[in-house]
Amino acid sequence: MPVSSDKDAHRNHINRLVGITLTGLLLTSCASLHIRDNDSTTTKIAKGFIRIPVAAATLGMSEGWHTRERMMESWLGHHESDLMLAWGSPAQVVPDGSGGKILMYAENRMYAAPGYAVSDTSGYIHGSVAGGSLYGVGEAETVTTYVPPQTYQWQVSRNFQVNSSGVITNYSWQGL
Amino acid sequence: MIDQDLATAHHEAGHAIALRHFGIQVSKVSVNNDGTGSTELEGSLPAREEDTVLVGLIGIQSELRFLGADMTFSDFVSTYESGKGDRDTIESETRTIWLAHRGIWHQVQYDNTETFIEKKKSEIEKLASAILRKKGYPKALDQKEIESVMKI
User: Fold this and answer.
1) C-alpha span between A63 and A39 (Å, rounded)
2) Interface pTM (ipTM) of the complex?
3) Model confidence, pTM
4) Tell me: domain A63-112+150-174, CATH 2.40.128, correct?
């Protein structure tokens, strides 16, 4: 039985991904993003990729949500000492009622959105021709509105359930 | 949730600012109430392949830059490799990141995008801020509104 090289496997994988992307493109009507036969592989992928934000509607949670979920999941089966080595001491440790405990990490986060100005210009112009000359009069007005900075705050929590042997068996989290 | 909105607003603002930088009109940016968003463009993608890649990478890299307190680029990559985040848009975009990480697009693309974000930081933040101020969902800015915000 022939064995494919890693390079072949990698290329096949990429081709499959491009195939999936092409399928997605068939659903679109945006001519500028159509993949051509003579496009390079990277261009094909890029076009498929960039098509995504162009779509009017998307599904599912954000990348951030999935990534954090995956990050939490990756701790399952690890010993609590590994977690503490990476994250430090939890803010709180409470018994879980079944011989184990819950390690609780919490943090308040804040983001200050900058202020900005919005400029809106409106105007008119009237013109006329008389005696071979062009007469015109116009007026324009620009209204600038300043939107002040705003601060957003939210709480982030990451909780791990640890069994009596010190192994992480469950988790919950909230906040990006 | 405000944290989700913040992440998505910076993600989409990154796409939009990059597109505008390459002379491409952005007709709409929006943030939905489920953490997803979209950036709609008019015309063609940048002619240079590396510019198109930058337009793509900047979404996630902006999100990380402004709101990725406990995440890294590698976390996104491993999300793809684990098979998570496998729903339509998310997987497609993460897939591209994964390809970039695997060297099909060199590390230099990631670094270029970081440099671009640094240069355009205030513009990205300004546009994200304007998106966030919109009431209700989707929080969307049309082309005229984007121009109004960006021209000052």
Assistant:
1) 28
2) 0.75
3) 0.71
4) no
